[in-house]
Specification:
With about 350 residues, the protein is an all-alpha fold. It contains 14 helices and four strands. The strands form two sheets. The protein has a two-stranded antiparallel sheet with strand order 1-2. A two-stranded antiparallel ribbon has the order 3-4. Helix 8 runs antiparallel to helix 9 and helix 8 packs across helix 10. The chain is globular. It starts with a helix and ends with a helix. The C terminus is likely disordered.
Length: about 350
């Protein structure tokens, strides 16, 4: 890596620290904390604090059962809330730091890591330093990134490992070294098994794009062989993570829901897996990034550029089509467009 790249990455880190520092100062002046009313103290801090205290008392990183939660619960119920998240496990080494403070620091640190890795990944695509820097700033300023450092941290805390997996995919295709890719997959699943499904889907799209981009003349048979070898390595990474995936799947199938009473309404909604599409074609929903506009500008730029190549034109189209089916990938846990966060950043 060149010295100028290190300078640009340092500037990105300083930029994030300055932005969050200003926010911290404004909040402290009003005797507030860097955390939203929604789910922050009641979920992110409370569960992480319980996991840490439980570890100190039992010495178990992965307990089977908890009597203190929900009048007795299988701990697989709480993997979504960060039972084995890497940054939460790291907090066990710092008992002197309040968990509320630690969550604020770790969410900012993960954002810095995501942005730095994004810059590194973009530079690996033979993009100029200036363009990579401004693309990283755009990535940082995307709706979910800074916003969810203080609200729903699980919506973004897998992002460094997703980008690390992208870097690993490129490394595997160029050098046939899969360790980095598998590490990224395992960390991504440990961080959020929920979002890892759609994140792996994005990895698949990126892998197909890279495979075809690296070929001077497209050879579909060779491409299929490469995809097959790549999928084998991905399955190894997923297999390593089965110690949390299998208990989670068993726990999910142990619950049966026949209907949900809609709050504030007098009817039952039994079609729990009905896909709700709200202006999906344009990519505009209440919680999304407005990626439809970016998509159309990108298509126009590619069509009018001199170096336009038809073989890679399908990539943004696949990403846009992904909007329709990502609700299925996330198990329809959320009825709103929370599933647009990761694919919006991938665009």
């Amino acid at each position: 890596m060149k010295k100028n790249d290190i300078r640009y990455m340092a500037v990105l880190g300083i930029l994030i620290v300055l932005i969050t520092g200003v926010l911290f100062t404004l909040l402290q002046s009003k005797q507030l904390v860097y955390g939203s009313i929604t789910d922050w103290l009641s979920q992110h801090v409370a569960f992480a604090e319980y996991f840490r205290e439980n570890f100190y008392q039992t010495g178990q990183l992965y307990p089977d059962f908890s009597l203190q939660l929900g009048a007795g619960q299988n701990m697989a119920e709480f993997i979504y809330y960060g039972l084995l998240r890497p940054e939460i496990l790291l907090s066990y080494a710092f008992p002197m730091i309040k968990m509320s403070t630690y969550i604020m620091i770790s969410s900012i640190a993960l954002t810095i890591t995501s942005t730095e890795l994004f810059y590194y990944w973009i530079r690996k695509q033979n993009i100029s330093q200036h363009a990579a820097f401004f693309a990283s700033v755009i990535f940082l300023c995307a709706g979910p990134m800074l916003f969810h450092t203080h609200k729903h941290v699980m919506f973004i805390n897998y992002m460094p490992w997703l980008i690390l997996t992208f870097i690993g995919i490129q490394r595997y295709l160029q050098k046939r070294k899969s360790a980095l890719m598998m590490i990224g997959i395992v960390l991504m699943i440990l961080e959020s098994y929920f979002y890892s499904v759609s994140a792996l889907f994005m990895c698949g799209i990126y892998a197909i794009y890279e495979i075809l981009r690296m070929q001077k003349k497209i050879d579909y048979l060779e491409s299929l062989k490469t995809i097959g070898r790549l999928m084998g390595q991905v399955l190894i990474g997923v297999g390593i993570s089965c110690f949390i995936l299998l208990p989670t799947v068993i726990m999910m199938f142990s619950h049966t829901t026949y209907g949900v009473v809609e709050a504030g309404h007098g009817y039952q909604r039994t079609h729990l897996y009905r896909i709700q599409i709200q202006c999906v074609f344009c990519g505009y929903v209440g919680d999304c990034l407005g990626c439809g506009c970016i998509f159309y500008f990108q298509k126009f730029q590619r069509k009018t550029s001199s170096g336009y190549h038809d073989s890679t034109d399908y990539y943004p189209t696949l990403v846009l089509l992904y909007f329709k089916w990502s609700a299925v990938c996330t198990g329809k846990v959320f009825d709103s467009a929370h599933w647009l966060y990761d694919c919006g950043n991938a665009v």
